Amino acid sequence: MRVLVSGGAGYIGSHTVVQLVAAGHDVVIVDSFANSKPAVIGRLEALTGRHLPVHAFDLTDYDKTERLFADEPFDAVIHFAGLKAVGESAQIPLDYYENNLGTSFSLLRAMQRHGVRMLVFSSSATVYGERGAPPYREDFEPIEATSPYGRTKVMIEHILGDVAAANPALRIGILRYFNPVGAHPSGTIGEDPQGIPNNLMPFIAQVAVGRRERLVVFGDDYPTADGTCERDYIHVEDLAAGHVAALNRLAQVEAPVSVWNLGTGQGTSVFGMLHAFERAVGHELPHVVGPRRAGDQPRSWADPAKANAELGWRTEKTIDDMCADTWRWQSRNPTGYED
Ligand code: NAD
Ligand code: WQD
After folding, report:
1. pLDDT value at 339 more than 70
2. pTM for the full model?
3. Does ligand 2 lie within 6 Å of residue 154's CB atom?
4. Is residue 203, in this structure, part of any structural domain at all?
């Protein structure tokens, strides 16, 4: 298939591009580089052995999006482009609503106009909100979120449902990712957050490489085995494989919209993750326990049974793989793509 990958220069998009090419797809990337570096493209070309066409523009610009679809045929779109920082979304909510909804509107309109039927959308476990006890299943209703970022995902999921109801020829796959971590085993591409990392794994990796003094563990008084929050960390390579599987599946399904959780089904605590990273690095890492972070749920993990059965997909990588691959990426690229 000829696949347009929006946000293909970003963390999850870049890893998915490598696997799409390996699976025989032709990939075209569109990215504004709002949260990524052009240097990733050369690394992707080295990994895939292919020239990768890249269109650098902001997808909220409908005219540019329309021109791209008028110029080139696509069989499918994988839509990663968007803003993703939960905390920042409360400071600049309009930017999040404009960007995340606007990019989706442009792509949906252009797809409609040019008869592109298949779309894979990056949703998030954040749509399960304050659900109570995991594991979380796709049929939990209603979906709801506690941040402007999360609400953009809830809104887009509803919009996709409405658009598909009006055009049942569409085949839309909504993928709800749990906590993506890790890097390509080559150590040449990985997560490169701008500024202070919001998420646990890149923060630990930056402590390990000496860019941050110590990890602050956000609370150790939760009702969990070791008192720290438990999450379903999924290796970005397994996540990328889930996109290739979803694309294959969309070519066969009857339903216009399908929702799949992408997770391992296992929870790991903050201390569990820290100790796994210490094993990867080979020594202890400085950390202190601080207060809870507002909005954190004690426990969250997927029920991945639907994706396992319908996509013929399951995660293969362990927590130790996630840490070893992150460490290879971080230690070889201490300042990310700016080396
Ligand atoms: P990322 O920021 O690394 O990648 C997103 C890419 O989209 C970036 O390269 C950015 O430059 C690009 N982009 C942003 N706005 C754009 C616009 N208006 N026009 C064109 N390009 C634009 O993020 P990621 O971690 O790879 O996440 C990809 C998707 O997965 C996002 O939609 C995110 O919300 C979702 N998601 C991420 C996580 C996570 O923890 N990383 C979890 C669940 C869901
Ligand atoms: C994991 C655990 C923290 C940093 C977020 C989004 C979610 C999805 C994935 C996009 C928590 C603890 C963290 C630190 C810590 N993204 N922690 N010290 O919050 O589960 O999910 O990313 O869709 O929507 O909310 O991930 O990596 O921020 O936190 O102790 O410096 O690590 O309290 O328990 P989270 P995270």
Report:
1. no
2. 0.98
3. no
4. no
